[in-house]
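not sure who needs this but someone in the group chat was asking about Muramoyltetrapeptide carboxypeptidase from Solitalea koreensis so here u go. i didnt clean anything up, its just raw.
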Amino acid sequence: MSKRPPFLKTGDTIGILCTARYVNMEQIQPAIKLFESWGLRVKLGDSIGAEWNIFGGDDELRAKNLSDFFVDAEIKAIVCARGGYGTLRMIDKVDFSALDRNPKWLIGFSDVTALHAHINTCLNMPSIHGQMALNIENKSAEAHETLRKALFGEALSFSYQNDFDFTRHGTAEGELVGGNLALIYAVQGSVSELDTDGKILFLEEVEEWLYNVDRMLWNLKRSGKLDNLKGLIIGGFSQLLDNDIPFGMTYEEIIWEKVKDYDYPVCFNFPSGHIDDNRALILGSKVKLEVGEDVSLRFTTQ
């Protein structure tokens, strides 16, 4: 990525806002304390505490808040308060021109995948798939530390034992892209559509019906999004749902069915997604993936 934002340093300001569902001041106090413990100042957006139906203010307010934070020279990074649903409703109202001129880090996951895809593809800029402000106190020490390292530009790598049934060994190097499966599916055919060609794709999902996981993955396969990958990383697929008459396949079997005929490395159970151990990933950065008896992922450029 040619437009990497500057890494943070002590004394910098991080902004917190809502692009999707509502949060109140009390809910984000642990995040404020954590960021302040890193030596950062915190600035809150007008969408914090605002409420319109399930959202953190109406679409216009949330879009203006994000656009204003892009313009605000004091703010060096922006963390989304929570996901849920709502980012797609306001993304076309956001003015990305200030971000394009003066890159800064955007942090979030889940529903924020819409912004990651747009920023990575349209602005050629990396962003951070990491824990949002809500419930940050319940996440692992590794989730906190990898987010701090990603923001401050410290070396970032991951390794864990590969004891999963579905896997394909191999080594790959390339740009890391991805995020939440449902949101990657939702931006297909739009200006924010994710470019996966020659990339290492990361996927995660939560509270989704197994049949819908199958449907979305068939869409990715039929649209060619899985054809020319360098590698595939499967993170948390948690709290999945099934019908009274079972779908008949696990999520691992559903995914493997779509990628078994390719030759790129595939790993499961990566520690990122809607799980307590939600470690931060820098989307849009070059990485080296090694899948063998252990899985390792190392960021070669940040």
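also The CA atoms of residues 129 and 176 lie 11 Å apart. if thats useful
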